[in-house]
Amino acid sequence: MTQTPEPQYYPDDEIDLRELFATLWTGKWWIIASTVIFAVAGVFYALSKPDIYQASALLAPAQGQEAGSRIGGQLSGLASLAGVSLGGGNANKTTIAKEVLQSRAFLTEFIHRHNLSEELMAAEAWNKSQEEWVYDKEVYNPATGEWGRDDEGKSLRPTDWDLVNALKSKLTVTENKDNGMITVSLKSLSPVAARQWVEWLVHDVNEHMRAQDVQEAEASIDYLESKLQETNIAGMQQVFYQLIENETRTVMLANAQQEYVFKTVDPAVVPQEKSEPKRALICIVATLIGGMLGVLIVFVRAFIRSDQSQPDK
Questions:
Q1: Which H helix or E strand runs over 304?
Q2: What gap in Å lies between CA 67 and CA 258, rounded to an integer?
Q3: N- to C-terminal Cα distance for the chain?
Q4: Of 81, 137, 153, 170, which sees the most CB atoms within 10 A?
């Protein structure tokens, strides 16, 4: 019978734990030095980062949208006969408003309406005692209101693209799929500004959607009234009167509701605690990285020494 050869073991390929610990002990100063350097660097980095605050508002779809949709649905057939598209029939205004809130056109208008360019692009800190912004004088001079220039002489005044990207990086809009609630959160160096900006965003998107619906309804009314003057058919006149009544109702409801699309369930407040940076976590991670790098250096040095000590074959 053929005997199966027993596996052969090569001592040189085995991991000797005693030698491993001896190598680490020999290079302990490299490990300690690397760990200390990274720990100190982590502390300085964590302390150099300014505090960032986050304010949030909990919103719910405003009541009355479903009723308006039902009314629009009942008259949609009549509107199609007259060549008019009733606003709000099948469209979900909450979904549209959520997308508008994050759209580039709306955010650009929002930034310019409230003059947030300097706070977004030039502010480097918030003075808590005096409750005012601290600007980077090389970027923007608040005394003269002038933007600085780079090494090539170009103005540092941000474009609309830069402004929207800066605001989008601070803005978060999330929707709870279970109950339809929407949370609008915004981060800022200033806790006061974080709360104020969230309130402005909610107010402005409500006003934007209100103005849009009123404009569409008034345009429909003008069109229907012109068509009403052109027809002498009693049946069609009745249809036009019903459509005009519905569009007039839309204008009245839009102007009557203070919170048109989003109703504030939990308003934003001035945050008392920072959300970023996590300084303790930064220091711990930096220390761990330093320790692992030190161990790696010790093993690489030991491998190079052992390779050099072996005689050439």
A1: helix 279-309
A2: 17
A3: 40
A4: 170
pLDDT in tens, 88-111: 443 488 889 999 999 999 999 999
Phi, psi of 304 (to 5 degrees): -65, -40
CA 136 – CA 133 distance, rounded (Å): 10
> With left for phi above 0 and alpha for psi between -120 and 50, is residue 83 left, alpha or beta?
left
The contacts of residue 147 (CB under 8 Å, 6+ apart) are 122, 139, 140, 141, 155, 156, 157
Q: Cα dist. 53→50, 56, 110, 189 in Å?
A: 10, 10, 20, 6
pTM exceeds 0.90 for this model = no
Q: How far apart are CA 79 and CA 242, in angstroms?
A: 9
Hey, how many other C-beta atoms are within 10 angstroms of the C-beta on 262?
25
Q: Is 250 helix (H, G, I), strand (E, B) or coil?
A: helix
Question: How many whole angstroms separate alpha carbon 197 and alpha carbon 115?
Answer: 11
Q: Is the peptide bond before 191 cis (omega within 30 degrees of 0)?
A: no
Task: Judge contact between 105 and 164, C-beta under 8 A.
Answer: no
The better pLDDT of the pair 256, 54 is held by 54
Residue 50: count of CB within 10 angstroms of its CB: 13
User: What's the distance, CA 243 to chain centroid?
Assistant: 41
